[in-house]
Specification:
Blueprint: E1 4-9, E2 11-12, E3 17-18, H1 20-29, E4 34-38, H2 41-45, H3 48-61, E5 66-71, H4 78-89, E6 94-97, H5 99-102, H6 112-121, E7 125-128, H7 137-146, E8 152-155, H8 166-172, E9 176-179, H9 185-195, E10 200-201, H10 211-218, H11 225-240
Length: 244
């Protein structure tokens, strides 16, 4: 079965690291066709240009296997907008935001200029969710309602404490997708039952998690073949193909 992993951090992080050769070995071992990669830690928070350049080089080197998400801290204003445009022009396929590392409330209007770029370029936006205060599902809903043309990925499906908000949010906004890393199989099963499988995408968040765990838990859900194909690859494929 074809697998696309929509969320991988690559580089030398504060607590865990993953280099390209390690990633490719893991992909081959677990039959993963493609991964969407983004930078780690300080490159998400501060050194956006360095992180984007690194991801751009990897995507160019392994273009058959890797897609890249850009990072841009909204506190930098026009500089961040220009950086996002530059990286999308060079082949990255979306925007990764982490309101915890970047220091803003997820629904704050400070992020709007970057989301306007995402909307005009028709690229997806991956948002970390699940951390109290600054990264909540209903905050993501506010963004989805302000930017209806943007497809948002709810990172980690609000793991761990805010899973109970996920289904109400998904029911209200058709432009929000749930990403499966870390969250329990029971939450994903409830999502499938209540909202269908068309807006659930596989992500591992390696090296923070492990591929065998993230793939294995989804095989416990009892999905039929078509549902599994959607969750593991087809839904992600649609998002990756949408960039203008």
């Amino acid at each position: 079965m074809k697998i696309i992993d929509f969320h991988v951090h690559i580089g030398k992080g504060v607590h865990r690291s993953l280099d390209p050769k390690q990633l490719l070995k893991l992909m081959d071992r677990h039959h993963i066709e493609k991964c969407v990669v983004c930078p780690v830690d300080e490159y998400i928070a501060v050194k956006n240009n360095e992180g984007n350049e690194y991801i751009g080089r990897l995507v160019g080197q392994y273009r058959e296997r890797l897609y890249g998400m850009a990072v841009a801290n909204p506190w930098r204003g026009k500089e961040s907008v220009d950086e996002l445009k530059r990286t999308l022009d060079k082949g990255l396929i979306g925007l990764k935001i982490n309101s915890i590392l970047q220091g803003f409330m997820l629904c704050d209007s400070i992020i709007d200029p970057l989301l306007q770029v995402a909307s005009s370029r028709n690229v997806p936006v991956y948002a970390h969710t699940g951390t109290m205060g600054n990264a909540l599902p209903f905050q993501l809903l506010e963004l989805a309602e302000r930017f209806k043309k943007v497809n948002f990925i709810m990172g980690h499906t609000a793991y761990s404490d805010f899973w109970y908000d996920v289904i109400p949010v998904m029911e209200r906004a058709e432009n929000i997708y749930a990403e499966t890393s870390h969250v329990s199989p029971a939450v994903i099963r409830s999502l499938v039952d209540k909202c269908g499988v068309q807006r659930i995408i596989f992500g591992s968040d390696i090296p923070e998690s492990k591929l065998d765990v993230e793939i294995g838990k989804l095989k416990l859900l009892g999905l039929n073949k078509k549902q599994s194909e959607c969750l593991f690859a087809l839904n992600a494929g649609r998002l990756l193909e949408q960039k203008k």
